[in-house]
Amino acid sequence: MSEPPPTAGRIVHYVSHGTPLRSDGSQAFPPACRAAVVTEVDPTDPGRVGLAVLNPTGQFFHPLSSGGSVLIESRSQVPGSWHWPERA
Ligand SMILES: [Zn+2]
Asked: Ligand 1 centre and the CA of 57: distance in Å?
């Protein structure tokens, strides 16, 4: 099952970084899927997009000019990457 290429305005998941690692390697808040709106798509690399990330308590922008976000399949849960929302 392949997904279509992203376009501006599509809603995707952004994997948050979570809170910093503690000395024992644990995290108070581990990486999590967050809703994000695609704001721009790299014309030479359609897997790289700019995002407006909607966290539960705030939002931030991750534009292509700052590197954007790359597509990595959802089960990998790589912080800073995006993927199409899982089908429940
Ligand atoms: Zn997800």
From this structure: 18
Give the residue extent of every domain in the chain.
Answer: 11-18+30-83
Q: How far is the CA of 15 from the centre of ligand 1 (A)?
A: 7
Task: For residue 86, report the distance from its CA to the centre of ligand 1, in Å.
Answer: 5
* pLDDT single digits (tens) 48-77: 999 999 999 999 999 999 999 999 988 888
> Hunting for tokens 């959802």 — which residue is that?
74
Q: Answer whether 69's CB lies under 8 Å from 62's CB.
A: yes
The alpha carbon of 9 and the centre of ligand 1 are apart by a number of angstroms equal to: 17
pTM equals 0.87
State the DSSP code for 84: P
